[in-house]
Structure formats: C-alpha cells, structure tokens
Amino acid sequence: MFLPNSSQKFGSLVNAGRIYFRTKKDKTAGVKEDGYIEPGVRFCFYLKLEKDLTPTPNKEEKAIGRFLPLSVKEVIKSIEGGQWKPRSGLVMLASFHKHGCIGNEDLDEKKLYVLPPFDLSGFSEQVNDERRGQRGL
Fold first, then answer.
1. What range defines the domain where residue 47 resides?
2. Is residue 87 domain-resident?
3. Which of 69, 95, 115, 116 has the greatest CB tally within 10 Å of its CB?
C-alpha cells in the first residue's frame, strides 16, 4: 500500500478473516429499536507496516488520537476497563486469540460485556407471534 498522493510504500494488507456478532438494541437506538437483535460482521485485515515507518495520527482527522505500543496484557486491561469501543475491542481480542496470544482462560467475560449477554429463549416464539400479527392471524 502507498500513502495517498505519494509513491512511498507504508505496508501491506493481509486478510484476517471475518468476525460475526450480534447486539441487542436499547432505547438509545430509538424507542422502536429497543429490544431488537441486530447481527453484525467485521471484515478484518492486518496492516503490516514497513520497518522504518512510525505511524502518526493525521492532524486533519480526529478518528485516531495517538499510537501507543502496548503489551497484550495492557491491551486486555484497557479493554476490560472500557477504554475501547466494543467492536474495536472485539476485533483486537479475536486477533490475539487467533495468534495464540490469549486463551479463553485469560479473559474475564464479565468485564468484557457492555451489556450482559441476553437470553434468546422464546425468541422464535416472539418472531412467530409478530409474523402472525402482521398477517392478521
């Protein structure tokens, strides 16, 4: 890959697979969305930087504030501490798990949930009830 408007190579992209997840919407998504389950997918890539390149944030865009070298333990602690957006943390943990940096025993699941896991029992009955209502049955 090359920097925009430049011939300087900064790294290469490697496909890292997909992550599938689901979230349960709450009232912050809108009254009509409250309780709905939304599926999601993230297409992940690794960016392998050139050895002599040090990443710096683009001052014109505020999406990235800074780059920090952190150990795996430091990243996990910061995710558990709520310092990451949930889906960004999910991508990082999946990468660590894929590369054997962490196992299931390394994670405190209770700290990783933004909301507790939701119960899907009765979900198919609710969907069927809604379908019947739409058909006037």
1. 11-116
2. yes
3. 95
